[in-house]
What we know:
The protein is of the alpha/beta class.
Amino acid sequence: MTTGTGAQARIERIITTGVLGAGRPGYPAGGVPIENNVWLLGDDDAVLVIDAAHDADAIARAVGDREALGILLTHGHEDHVNAAVETARRLDTHLYLHPADLFLWEETHGDRTPDFELAEGATFLVAGAEVATLHTPGHTPGSVCFAVPALRTVFSGDTLFEGGPGATRWDYSSFPGIVESIRTRLFPLPAETVAHPGHGADTTIGAEAPALEDWLARGW
């Protein structure tokens, strides 16, 4: 489904389904069913893939015969990376992850490491659109978002959702950290910027920014 267009680049969403936590302590034996958004940014010739969740077949079909310039991972949680290695193999492309989330990646993929490290300010170019990496720790230490100014878009992973910040229930997470990341890295973006998250519906920076004080008061 096409969800937005620019002069050349367009955004496509693939909704994939799978399970989270199967066989892991604290989860049901069969895991918890979950849906993820996988995003494609590009044109008829080339795309960037943002996150690689659950279903390498579906992602590869959506890319088709276009060149995959890379798979950019918003963070290292299982449900965002569990199809990453197989998707990269099928698309003959590279994997990018912030190194602070390598410990989470290893829970799913062991010592098969991503190809390149993401860092604040790293940029990519696809279909005439520049993609800028924003390091937004809080949900995980290595969480990142990807801003595309030409399209007034940010791919917000599990950092910002419609109605609030991402979860910070793990010992490596930080609620003050995620709020600071959103406040300083995402809320300065233009109000009309559309946030495409890792799960669920889109929102905008303008819709979420007024709720900041309420988030702080509620502590989530």
